[in-house]
Amino acid sequence: MQITGVNQYNLEHQAEGAFEPTWIPEYPQGTHEVALFEIETDAGITGYGAMPSFAGGMDFAEPLSLFLLGEDPHDVEGILGKLESVNLIGPRPWGVEIALWDVIGKDAGKPIYELLGGSASEIPIYASTGEVMPADERIEYVEDRLDEGVEAVKLRVTEVEHLDIVRKVREAFPDLTLMVDANKGWAVRVMDDEVAWSYGDALEFARGLDEIGGVEWLEEPLPRHDYAQYARLRDAVDVPIAGGEFNNGIHHFREFVEHGSLDVLQPDAALATGIKRANEVAAMARQHGLRYVPHTWTNGIGFVANLHVMVANDSPWCEFPMEPPWDPEVRDFLLTETLDHEDGFVTPPDGPGLGVEIEPDLLAE
In 10 A of CB 182, how many CB atoms? Predict the structure, then answer.
């Protein structure tokens, strides 16, 4: 089998309203932009992958064709060697790598999780919020999630003073599984209004979580490459430390492990590793007694790609983005079917490859 075509579609979906994500300070988000990659083969099998994009999109299909045309899509490792050059100058190639796995699964007639050695199983989700919200509003949000059968929530914070939000939510829900994300690993600085934390800030906040008690993890309280400071923080507090969602490439996770930086490794297959390397990071976590719980906040294809790897590696939780108006339908607008949870659990599609189909009207447009 050979790759005969590489196409890219720049897609944009308008949500009904907007929210203010902590990773884009002071910039309300009401649209969902996706770069969709289509890999065609001489066997008539087409695979899809995707990555987040900006308004209007940036086109990469022509340079990607130079590296991919004529290659066997089954040779993921060999193609990744070629895509290192793409990764060097941009874009990150992980959305393309996901499309290779979609082809491989379709050719084998098996879902990707089965190709990775896994079997169909359900994973409990945690509702992942996207913005900082006052405690009373966030308590109402948690009540809505509990009514839906969800039993875990991740709160967003940007300042040390936001400990008070976490404390009030914990007091309102003593048995709630609670995660906290400081979003200090990276940011999209459109308005250049990011609130950075020093090590002292991170330590003060983490010790505050220790006092509150029962927090599943503190996510990215420091810059994503500061392995030594992460290790120092991890040694100083009881709350588990998580991170790595945007660290580009498996070598970063070797650094995290060698430094003893994290308790929870979170590489997003669509942003940081692709499917093959994500599976390798999951094995690394298993070998060192760590947890593998990837970031999933990208798009429907990115979510499903991560879900396949999670199922194959028995991840204890699945991040489920849920910050109205950003809901599963907005996340999955490019798919023919929305993948939602059922009573707080989610199961990967069991069709071949990714197991999802692209909305044909979007491609026609």
Answer: 25
CA distances for 280 relative to 42, 164, 276, 314, angstroms: 30, 38, 6, 14
CATH superfamily label, 115-346: Enolase-like C-terminal domain (3.20.20.120)
Q: Are 99 and 79 in contact (CB under 8 A)?
A: no
The β-bridge partners of 154 are: 128, 179
* HSE-CB of 229 using CA atoms within 13 angstroms: 17
CA pair distance 104, 47, nearest whole angstrom = 8
Kindly list the domain boundaries of the chain, sorted by start residue: 3-109, 115-346
Q: What is the pLDDT of residues 79-107, one digit of tens each?
A: 999 999 988 888 899 999 999 999 999 99
Sign of the dihedral through C-alpha 278, 293, 131, 215: negative
For the record, the structure tokens of 172 come out as 């309102």
How many other CB atoms sit within 10 Å of the CB of residue 362? 17
Could you report the per-residue pLDDT of 271-297, keeping only the tens digit for each?
Answer: 999 999 999 999 999 999 999 999 999
For residue 122, the tally of other CB atoms under 10 A from its CB is: 15
Is the domain covering 3-109 a CATH 3.30.390.10 domain? Answer: yes
Q: What is the pTM of this model?
A: 0.96
The rounded distance, in Å, linking the Cα atoms of 237 and 314 is: 27
Q: What is the three-class DSSP state of 261?
A: coil
Residues 113 and 91: their CA atoms lie apart, in Å, by 26
Identify the sign of the CA torsion 316, 321, 324, 330: negative
Own/partner contacts of 338-344, CB < 8 Å, gap of 24 or more, are 338/300, 339/300, 339/303, 339/304, 339/307, 341/125, 341/148, 341/149, 341/150, 342/149, 343/148, 343/149, 344/124, 344/125, 344/148, 344/149, 344/150, 344/151, 344/152
